[in-house]
Amino acid sequence: MSTLIVIAGQQSDAGSKESNDDSCGIRIPDDTQLTTKGIAAVIADGMSGSEAGREAADACVQGFLSDYFSTPDSWTVETSGEKILGALNQWLYSQGHQKYGSPKGLVTTLSVLVIKSNTAYLFHVGDTRIYRLRDGELEQLTTDHRVTIGTDKTYLSRAMGIDTHLDIDFRSLPVEKGDIYLLTTDGIHDFVSDTTLKRLAIEHRRTPEAGVDAIIRQATVGKSNDNLSAQILFIEQLPAAAEHEFYEKLTELPFPPQLEPGMVLDGYRILRELHASNRTQVYLALDTETDGKVVLKTPSVNYEDDPAYIDQFMHEEWAGKRLNSAHILKVFEPHGRRQCIYYVTEYIEGQTLRQWMHDHPQPSLDEVRNIIEQIARGLRTMHRQEMIHQDLKPENIMIDEHCVVKIIDFGSTRIAGISEITTPLDRDNILGTRNYTAPEYLRGHGGSNRSDLYSLGVIAYEMLCGRLPYAKEFTQRNMNRQKYIPARECKRNIPEWIDGALQKAVCINPERRYSLLSELVYDLSHPNQTYSRKHRAPLIERDPVTFWRATTIVFFLTTIAALVF
User: Fold this and answer.
1) What is the pLDDT along the chain (565 residues), one digit of tens a residue?
2) What DSSP character marks residue 41?
3) Single pTM value for the model
4) Between the CA of residue 374 and those of 210, 342, 464, what are the distances in Å?
């Protein structure tokens, strides 16, 4: 399968100055990170008026290139970049004050270009620049953060390290084969015209090191009075979405045979089958190396020629390995090379939440709160990794013999960082269970953390009431006519404030739900006066349809009465 290939060159020179306060760096990994993280180029120009501009520029360049490739693969480029730059900015600001006692101690401009799959991501603060040369047209992709005072004085309006608050310009745009990206400091672009930059970039498109050298020489000829730094990146090849290549990669390992008790596969002795469906088989096995019980999950041979299914199955393992929580099923690394497709998880001795609900039809509020809080802890771990479970339901939650609650099954999990990688497959199909799937999915919208929160709210409601919060199964047609069934109609002993919390959690409009899991957990244990009768919001806010219907009826009756009398 074809991969991203970028030819790059860079150079930084003091120019006419005694010292060089510029810094730049490019990292092109040669392993799997080329797919999961892409390549990164960073250029920085330490502010000449600061005490340690060079130190600030170096810290940003080296810090970003080091930290970006250490962030979780599940994070998006935007999340990774913003977290890193925010931390770098805080460090520059605090160090500037500690070392130099001045907000101008460690200050620098910064421009970052990340190319992942078929997309370019730009982060920008200050007056360094990123250009793109495509089809003979040179376009400046960043905006200079400069303020002009008087007729000839310009000052930076934004920079790294000058304030605790950092305002970053971010944008993403498609990449095309043959694109040239040019990053420069103001010692270059203030003294070399765009026409000349374009000509030199085109002439040296396949020899970028010679290209940046020619640009720096041109800036020197143009009497530049500043440091000189430039980077050129030529996009020689982009990852192709060829389905046959993608399928070949997925099917490097064969599907496993039907496993029977006593069989040994890669050091795992099969004890018995735990579960079987038309999609997967789940086996209890003995790890002969540790003498401990584990679970082997294998794909069904019914999908042996289905690349979308294989991709989904492999991402279950990928997601599970990156989640570390007492409330999430642990996925283990196999001891050696696998002979076929399967993955290994911990064995949980217990029952599903569905079974627990059947055995406890009248749970106490404390029991429900305890289970919901543990599920929320597991979900919070997933959300911090930018993963959305998307199929939270009682069947996908286990309660072990010690009453520890664990989320299982990551088959529908959406991983934000993986979604940025171009493939021939559609990874956004709805795979959840309709009664628990958030309504926005049925409307064709993307999910968010609030979508998982909706599912958690439905589970909490069902545990308390023994039924679902809406009378009918959601469809696109009936969604706007659905009415929440108050929990107190099912059980009068449910406090009004808990009913209010449940109603907010399962609101059809995601914008009206809780934004944080902790808010729901808190409101299920602490009376929120907003949901008490005397503090209840006006009817027009709670149920605008009913409000206007009642208003219309009153108006009609008033009109009739006026005509009669």
Assistant:
1) 578 999 999 999 999 999 999 999 999 998 889 999 999 999 999 987 666 889 999 999 999 999 999 999 999 999 999 999 999 999 999 998 888 776 677 999 999 999 999 999 999 999 999 999 999 999 999 999 988 776 667 788 999 998 899 999 999 999 999 999 999 999 999 999 999 999 999 999 999 999 999 999 999 999 999 999 999 999 999 987 545 555 566 667 899 988 999 999 999 999 999 988 888 999 999 999 999 999 999 999 888 888 888 888 888 898 999 999 999 999 999 888 889 999 999 999 999 999 999 999 999 999 999 999 999 999 999 999 999 999 999 999 999 999 999 999 888 899 999 888 876 566 555 556 788 999 998 888 888 999 999 999 999 999 999 999 998 888 778 887 889 999 999 888 899 999 999 999 999 999 999 999 999 999 999 999 888 764 455 556 556 667 777 788 887 788 887 777 6
2) E
3) 0.82
4) 59, 28, 16
Phi–psi pair at 513, nearest 5 degrees = -80, 175
Q: Where are the beta strands (DSSP E) in 277-352?
A: 280-287, 292-299, 331-332, 343-346, 350-352
In order of their start, the domains of the chain are 5-240 (3.60.40.10), 244-346 (3.30.200.20), 350-531 (1.10.510.10)
CB burial readout 498-537, b (16+ within 10 A) else e: bbbbbbbbbbbebeebbeebebbbebbeeebeebeeeeee
Nearest Cα neighbor of 412 from 311, 513, 322 is 311
Sequence-ordered alpha helix ranges (H) in 466-495:
487-490
- For the record, the structure tokens of 320 come out as 């599970």
